[in-house]
């Protein structure tokens, strides 16, 4: 009854200025989003991404696994904090399969399942290093590890590394000098250098880690992306809990099924588990069930063989295109696995300008600067060959070459 007046919402500008005073300045300046995480429109040539194209994923297996998992208790139950026992057993068996006769294969209860290894890194840095304490990292290294370390407040100490892996003498000196107890590294197909440690280097690093009573956090992110070689984790040679091993399935099963296994032994395992529980309590059971379903299928091995052939062809196509169109680029080594090339450009290259110019011409690239924990020691690009539309790699390289040539004479 009566007259109703309808309120009209008036558009007004957002005003969050008060938050500046409430938040103060950040404790450490973190980059906003890594280039590797950027999504790009489908009409550009994307050489920046960290994630493989759908062509390289076991899509049929993943869809079938979701359908099956939806009918199991995993869809409604709460899994144990450390993970589904069968998935723990799978991660342990994978490392156990490459453990030498004299070694000590891990047991399922050594495994903690994480929602991706990025989360594992954060928990491991918090649990094993701690705020204000030093963490040795290879330089260059994975940008996400640099970010996770900054968030955890740990002090990153770079150790020079390259396509042959870290310099063991420098590593030993840095342990001595800093009193650090943890070294984060990627012994197989490192992101970004593609380095794969020789067995001799793996033994020397393990020897140093033992000598200093320290941990090696081994990030085996590209275990499923061997091209010319099968990765052998350093963790397989460890029998005294020095290596905390991380194996991710995010990129090989599906970016939508973020699952990683962390294998740690002794009190370190309890600390990492406590950190994981504090952060996320447990990992979605349905995602764990899907990951396990996929990797347990006989077709998984067939799929991985196809991925190996696909990556080899893509890698060689991009290398050939760079040789033809970017003669000033130097590839220090052809990676035997992984998803990217680490390409050195002339020292005077203005990488920010090159990235802008390439993007304006429809090619997205990632400046290597993001992979350096301190000042970059050269002008590098990280070019991913696992993205969409490999047929466009020659055109992508042509654009990079043209934009680089515009910077000369510098
Ligand atoms: C070296 C390295 N470690 C860890 C990760 C993160 O893995 P996830 O997606 O499982 O969190 C990545 C992803 O790019 C990586 O390159």
From TrEMBL:
Gene3D superfamilies with a match to the protein in the record: Aspartate Aminotransferase, domain 1, Type I PLP-dependent aspartate aminotransferase-like (Major domain)
Residues spanning the signal sequence: none
InterPro entries noted in UniProt: Aminotransferase_I/II_large, HTH_trans_reg/aminotransferase, PyrdxlP-dep_Trfase, PyrdxlP-dep_Trfase_major, PyrdxlP-dep_Trfase_small
Molecular function (Gene Ontology), one example: DNA binding
Keywords: DNA-binding
Alphabetical list of CDD domains matching this protein: AAT_like (cd00609)
Pfam families: Aminotran_1_2
Coiled coil: none
Superkingdom, taxonomy of origin: Bacteria
Domain Aminotransferase class I/classII large, first and last residues per copy: 43-367
Name used for this protein in its record: DNA-binding transcriptional MocR family regulator
